[in-house]
Amino acid sequence: MTAAPRRRWIAIVLIAVAVAAVAFAVGRFSTFAASGPALPTTDSAEAGFARDMQVHHAQAIDMAMTIHRKTADEDVRALAYDIATGQSAQRGEMYDWLVKWGLPQSGGAPMAWMAASDAGHDHGFTSAEAMTAEEEREAMGMASPAELTALAQAEGTAADCLFLSLMIRHHEGAIPMADAVLELASDPRTLTVAESMRNGQQFEIDAMQAMQQRLSCAP
User: How far apart are CA 120 and CA 128, in angstroms?
Assistant: First the structure.
């Protein structure tokens, strides 16, 4: 074989090896991708939790910022700061989950995803049918527009006591949501955040109840 044909043959062999290597790499990549964990779907517990909890957190942040601006009680101010900053961070993370999962930030009846859970049944969520806005607010423990206005207008200890009452109820509405997603979900990060959220909000409920006693808030 002359030098020229030999060079052509070597080039052909090298090209064939390169093509085979690329094909092998693509095959391996496809195998890894196919065997990876499936992303949550739009009707999953993870997606429902992320959407509903963002709405829930938004109101808690608003109430916390309202009282932080005007309270003279250092403990209440510190608590409000922790709630506003902590729940802002969680809300941002849950927004990012939906982006990464390729899902819309809204969709489906609020809290309908809880109907399949024992935690949902324990708290009255037995149907996937849409609730009225008032039913949704009450189920989540959220403040009404009138209560938010009252908080904005209150002053002194009366404002502190109203904030504590509203936020305790608000937290109590979030815990069943965390319980439900812990029961239904499989995404590791969702489970970690929900567990931390449930424990943290129960701790804050205990702290707020102690503040109520210290401030002699009316029951």
Answer: 11
For 14-57, the pLDDT digits (tens) are: 444 444 444 444 444 443 444 557 999 999 999 999 999 999 99
Residue given tokens 């006693």 in the structure block? 213
Q: Quick count: other Cβ atoms within 10 Å of Cβ 154?
A: 17
R_g of the chain computed on alpha carbons: 26
DSSP 123: T
Q: Note the residue count of the chain.
A: 219
- Hunting for tokens 């904005």 — which residue is that? 152
Q: Which of 123, 126, 162, 156 is closest to 144 using CA atoms?
A: 162
Residue 141 and residue 126: Cα distance in Å, rounded?
Answer: 17
Interatomic CA distance for residues 197 and 191, integer angstroms? 10
Task: For residues 206 and 211, give the distance between their C-alpha atoms in angstroms, rounded to a whole number.
Answer: 9
118-149 burial by CB neighbour count: b if 16+ within 10 A, else e? ebbeebebeeeeebeeeebbebbbbbeeebbe
- Give this prediction's pTM: 0.79
